[in-house]
Design a protein that fits this description.
Chain lengths: 90, 183
Amino acid sequence: MNSFLALQDQDLAAFNGERRAGVRKRVERELRTAEFIASIVELFGPVMADTLSALSGGQGIGADETYRTFSASEDDDPLGEPPTVPTGPG
Amino acid sequence: MEDLDIVQAYRAHQHATCFQILYDRYAGKVYSKAMTMLHRPGEAEDATQEIFTKIFLSLGQFEGQAKFSTWIYSITYNLCIDKIRKSKRSRELFASEVENPPDTAEEVPDEALMSMQVNELRFVLQQLTEAERTLLLMKYKDGVKIRAIAELLGKNESAVKMQLKRIKEKAKRIHDKQFTSIA
């Protein structure tokens, strides 16, 4: 048998059992931690960015309360009919 | 089940079973390759852990153009090389200058090394420098092609071939001195 392959077999045999399982547990733990951090960033990232933006003098996303609704923006169609002037009583 | 199917399933559901299958398939091989580069079981274990974490965190970047095993091995070698570079052991492994002048002796056949007993081979490897051991093991234990070794180490192919030739000569000399002269 090729002595290098025998050497490889011995390496593989040495890594079986507890050592192999131990490394797997450590990898799983690291992946869970990474997943947790990612979910925290996903959850609070936009809020943090908004806060930082507001602190640096910009306008936070939540500050703009004049969002136009879809139905209101329909009136911007230049080719469309002008909006009808509401008639008041009298 | 093919690797790519398992990778796609893991990407879609992050299911622990997919992780388990891929880990079981490649843990030993990755550890063995880390041993080739780092030589110390503790360091190889730590590297194996880092490599698998990196693999599973960057599975999204695997496009399936190369084989999954090739992708894993390239991550393995690159991470080990990074570790070597960070340690004080890097100078020798990446040195492009060769200390000894080229000799014209006939090349030692591969069989001369492969037919050694494992304990003899271990003895010979211990007598070599880290860089020599790494090159020899990459070529003959892991079966990495000369071109790939050259790319990984940032050398040209002929330099790697010349180094391997010298290492084989040295290994044979060490072996003969220790084991053949007795007989």
